[in-house]
Amino acid sequence: MTAQDYLRPDEAFHLAQRKLERGAIKVLHDHDYVELFWIVSGAATHVINGQTMLLSVGCGALIRPSDRHGFSPQGSLPCHLANVMFRSETAARLLAHHRDEFDGHLFWHAGPEPSTFTLDTTRRARFAQALVDLEGGPRSRARIEGFLLTALTSLAMPGPESRAAIPVWLDAAINAARRPEVFRAGAAGFIGAAGRSHEHVCRCLKTHFGVTPSMLVNQMRMEHAGRLLIGTDLVTADIAVDCGIDNMSHFHALFRDHFGMTPRRYRLTRHRDPVQPALRHN
Question: Which of 100, 126, 226, 277 is the one with CA 20 to 30 A from 133?
Answer without folding.
Answer: 100
